Amino acid sequence: MPDPSTYRPASGTIPEQPGVYRFRDPTGRVIYVGKAKSLRQRLNSYFADVWTLHPRTQQMVTTAGSVDWVTVGTEVEALQLEYAWIKEYDPRFNVRYRDDKSYPYLAVTLDEEYPRLQVMRGAKRKGVRYFGPYAHAWAIRETLDLLLRVFPARTCKAGVFQRAHRMGRPCLLGDIGKCSAPCVGRVSADEHRQIVLDFCDFMAGKTDLLMKRLEREMQQASSELNFELAARLRDDLMALRRAMEKQAVVFGDGTDADVVAFADDPLEAAVQVFHVRGGRVRGQRGWVVEKTEDLGPGDLVHHFCSQVYGEEAAANGAASGIPRELLVPELPADVDALADWLSGLRGSRVTIRVPQRGDKKTLQETVAHNAEQALARHKLRRAGDLTTRSRALEELADALALDSAPLRIECYDVSQIQGTDVVASMVVFEDGLARKSEYRRFAITGQSDDVSAISEVLRRRFSRYRQEVAESVAAADPGDLPGIDPETGRPRRFAYPPQLVVVDGGQPQVNAAARVMADLGVTDVAVCGLAKRLEEVWIPDEEFPLILPRTSEGLYLLQRVRDEAHRFAITYHRQKRSKRMVASDLDGVPGLGEVRRKALLRHFGSLKRLKVATVDEIVEVPGIGRRTAEAILAAVGTPAIGDPARTNGRPASGQSGTVLPTAGMTDADRAPEAT
């Protein structure tokens, strides 16, 4: 580990002018870029006592092997150079504003001859104008669907556009009036571009002029008795109003601003920004960043502005994403230089200020609340991924007196209704996470209670385990991996034993499971049960249950495993029960598949009519032979009478016979379409 004192420059050699500095590791790679109003004052702060520095700063200065700098004339030049170096070197210790997810934008491809409106994610490109970001892609499509009747611009892909152009026929959107169909020449390229530009003006907040123009055209059409045009313009106005209602009005003065707020701890910070255009919230974004040093809100504002708006300007070629006003929780030390730099990017004055009262202060508090929630969610995800799962497994190992943490847990549950359609489930959790590819389900026959069903399921599972292990040992080459099928390369279905078996139930179920495993000679797998009544943990041959604290992460993990097993079992039970309830008497007829069953029901209309049909009448159905017809009548409970004199189940003259009763019809008989 390099010692900072080994590469510390002499204090007198560091200039006092503003500039930008770079820390490099021993291989020469840039690991940190910063700017300072006074290079000497800033760099000397890095070479104080290492133990007084911020943890991330300690790591940075002990990782670095050298430092260099460049002086500039003004702080604005320092900002420009700092942004350029961060973009060029991508230093590992710099605060980087990367979106916590890929936000969708409404993009307008103004660089094409016929601009297209579309949903776009990922990196921005030049020549495309973006609106948003939006929280969900469906919100963009919903807004587009409302606005296309007013601004019928192209939304199709290049391939669809070219195919329609070759065929000379527009797509469905062109036929229903939601596209001006430039592909077939209904409008020229200039006319289509004007439609797109009007759409951009509306999305940018210039709504009043457009609404007044449409109202004026509607009144004029009405006065000229052109009521069809007036009705269409009226519907356009209603569509625009509905689109505007979907965006919350926060300022009545048409404010164009970004509202930024932070929530941080010593190591991380969550950033939220609301984009307000024309007094309406047009989009929202959020980041969670690592703090490389002891950064206050003002420092975070500096990094946010220099990186995010620098990226906007670099991506679009113009600073369409930079607002006139930036509302922040605290002003950075270089606020004047920052405002000048942003003004240069935008091409007009940008103001940075802290709201003090009124609606802007209220919105700032709302954005800050969102930042606090984002940081809490981020911490929760990290805890769930690492610390919490480890603590849960350790608590289970301690509570159940296991030699090590149960890295693989299997849970079993039984589902039934009064002994019918008995099924069981096996779910697997590895390292505290569900392993759904390892889930199994069992159909139980001959058992009508939970205890015997649990016994059968565990006997089947661990018998298969012993069999798989024996086959693997007998057939394996020395280089084969244990538990892996050498032919397919996939894990054998039951070759991996768990460290812990959990059953959904109390003392009877747990003791039954332990007996089965003891009979099979499986002695290295722990067993416990979780009873729903009071969430007691039962251990085999124990008179009283184990009570874990309600705040125990181990108990919470057992509950998740048990609930997942219950969900998986009851889903399978419902499938079996539904399948049985729609079963038909025709299902078991040999040689009668689904296609022929449907043909029979189409021909006769119902199972009731089929029951009173003759063999000759059934043979008339395409694909049904005489032998199959006789089997059908036998299955539905009617003797196979081949006398042609018998029609529709009624005896002919002089012939005795009985019409079969229909009182015993099932739901499947009354609703043959369900079969």
How would you describe the overall organization of this protein?
By secondary structure, the chain is α+β, with helices and mostly antiparallel strands. The strands form 4 sheets. Strands 12, 13, 14, 15, 16, 17 and 18 form a 7-stranded mixed β-sheet that branches. It starts with a helix and ends in a 5-residue tail after the last helix. It has helices at 4-7, 39-46, 55-63, 75-89, 137-147, 158-167, 172-175, 189-203, 207-223, 227-245, 297-316, 335-346, 358-385, 387-399, 450-475, 507-519, 553-581, 594-604, 607-611, 615-619, 626-635, 667-670; strands at 19-24, 30-36, 66-71, 105-109, 117-120, 128-131, 257-264, 268-277, 280-290, 325-327, 351-353, 408-417, 420-430, 433-434, 440-443, 500-504, 526-530, 537-538. The longest helix is centred in the C-terminal third of the chain and has 29 residues, at 553-581. It is built from 22 helices and 18 strands. Helix content is 43%, strand content 16%. Helix 4 packs across helix 12 (335-346).
What topology emerges from the helices and strands here?
Blueprint: H1 4-7, E1 19-24, E2 30-36, H2 39-46, H3 55-63, E3 66-71, H4 75-89, E4 105-109, E5 117-120, E6 128-131, H5 137-147, H6 158-167, H7 172-175, H8 189-203, H9 207-223, H10 227-245, E7 257-264, E8 268-277, E9 280-290, H11 297-316, E10 325-327, H12 335-346, E11 351-353, H13 358-385, H14 387-399, E12 408-417, E13 420-430, E14 433-434, E15 440-443, H15 450-475, E16 500-504, H16 507-519, E17 526-530, E18 537-538, H17 553-581, H18 594-604, H19 607-611, H20 615-619, H21 626-635, H22 667-670
Helix pairs in contact: 4-12, 9-10, 11-12, 14-17, 15-16
